[in-house]
Write a structure and sequence with these properties.
Radius of gyration of chain B: 12 Å
Largest sheet of chain A: none
Number of domains of chain A: 1
Distance between the termini of chain A: 36 Å
Helix content of chain B: 25-40%
Shape of chain A: globular
Number of helices of chain A: 16
Helix content of chain A: over 70%
Number of strands of chain A: 0
Oligomer: heterodimer
Distance between the termini of chain B: 11 Å
Shape of chain B: globular
Number of strands of chain B: 4
Chain lengths: ~325, ~90
């Protein structure tokens, strides 16, 4: 269907020849845009519907007093299903601390949240297929699990800003909640409007970059990754990804281009995770609640965990 | 007169929520007194972790994400005349 639409626009409407580089890029661009936006709208709508049942406030209550293992699994699941808004990470962090939820569990949440979300999953599915999507999600979940676990070993509690411990979470009566399907539908629709309104430019930009790789230029830094020794390529990709700040949306078309040019799968996944999970603006926001030692450690552990996952996937994909 | 507090530390969604409430209350001639709460400790003292949060007359009306217009209107109508969306 999408292919036919792109055919119609590029070859019939614009009258371009199929073997033209521009036509190929344009064809790819139109096909991906229509496919991805349709998928994004439907998945965000479904997730919005689902999220009208679970709120972080409810999860916080639920996590309280659970064993660490269960709490961590739930925190990661919550991180994966909530859309990431970095403006919420500070109140969430404080809320979790106040509830007595171990800091390592909170870090697991903070890792999972930007890395895995429905938008990343849609982009991955649409561009790279279900196998790589599954691998990415599994890798993200394990990095969140073990990253938080490792973080805990360093007793990060000592680095939490002292005012955080003094904040008390209150309880306020709520207005009568409208739980009708109509209200959930409106909530889901509002989510679609808000999220698509926020990310559409990144999706288009990302696809445009990806499309231009298809028709046109090779990029030299990618050649660096291809030619680097298999073992060094992964840390190199992670290092490259740290200063690059993008949400998962922007990086996925780039990842497709990397795979297309022959970068190994583990290296590409490591690059994507590094871009999505480690970002300076996010660290600066977290700096409000925790000292820089903890943030440096957090970055180092994340980078290490991502490198390990990258190596693992490179190793597995060779076999 | 309704007292409306929009809770959130200045993120885009909080601004949007604030503006939407202004818009809805203005076009329905609902008398409101709007307030922005940006202090984290105060936000959390309401028990809200997902911002933007909205407090109407000291009750939580909303937490997380930008609410739609119909939902905003329902916060006010359910307090002054329950069951009738068009009053106020």
């Amino acid at each position: 269907m999408f292919n036919a639409l792109a055919d119609l626009i590029v070859f019939d409407l614009f009258g371009l020849a199929p073997d033209n580089a521009l036509a190929q890029s344009l064809h790819f661009f139109i096909m991906d845009i229509t496919k991805l936006f349709l998928m994004l709208v439907s998945i965000i709508y479904l997730m919005g519907w689902f999220r009208s049942f679970v709120s972080p406030e409810k999860v916080r209550q639920y996590l309280q007093g659970k064993s660490r293992f269960v709490a961590r699994l739930l925190a990661i699941a919550l991180g994966a299903i909530t859309p990431f808004c970095s403006c919420s990470s500070v109140p969430l962090f404080i809320g979790f601390v106040e509830a007595g939820i171990p800091l390592g569990v909170t870090f697991s949440f903070l890792i999972a949240s930007p890395m895995i979300n429905e938008i990343a999953v849609v982009m991955l599915l649409g561009i790279l297929g279900w196998k790589i999507t599954l691998l990415y999600v599994l890798a993200g979940l394990s990095v969140a699990f073990f990253g938080g676990l490792l973080m805990e070993k360093f007793k990060p509690e000592r680095w939490v800003e002292s005012y955080v411990w003094e904040i008390k979470i209150g309880k306020t009566a709520a207005l009568a909640e409208d739980n009708s399907p109509a209200a959930r539908h409106r909530y889901a629709l509002a989510e679609v409007k808000e999220i698509v309104g926020r990310i559409w430019k990144w999706v288009i930009l990302g696809i445009a970059i990806g499309a231009s790789f298809h028709g046109f230029f090779p990029v030299t830094w990618i050649d660096g990754l291809i030619n680097a020794h298999a073992v060094f390529a992964v840390p190199l990709a992670v290092l490259l990804g740290i200063p690059l700040y993008s949400n998962a949306v922007g990086v996925i078309p780039l990842a497709e281009a990397m795979l297309f040019k022959g970068v190994a799968l583990g290296t590409t996944l490591a690059f994507m995770m590094s871009v999505a999970a480690i970002s300076f603006p996010e660290l600066l926001i977290l700096r409000q609640v925790i000292k820089w030692q903890a943030l440096a450690l957090f970055t180092a552990i994340l980078a290490l965990a991502i490198i390990l996952v990258g190596w693992l996937f490179n190793f597995v994909s060779v076999i | 007169m309704f007292n409306v507090k929009v809770l959130g530390s200045g993120c885009a969604n909080c601004e949007n929520t604030y503006r939407l409430i202004e818009e809805v209350t203005e076009s329905n001639a609902i008398p409101v007194e709007m307030e922005k709460v940006e202090d984290m400790a105060t936000i959390l003292s309401y028990g809200i972790m997902s911002t933007p949060g909205v407090i109407v007359n000291d009750k939580i009306a909303h937490a997380g994400g930008v609410p739609d217009k119909k939902t905003i209107l329902s916060w006010f109508s359910q307090q002054c005349c329950p069951g009738n969306d068009s009053c106020c």
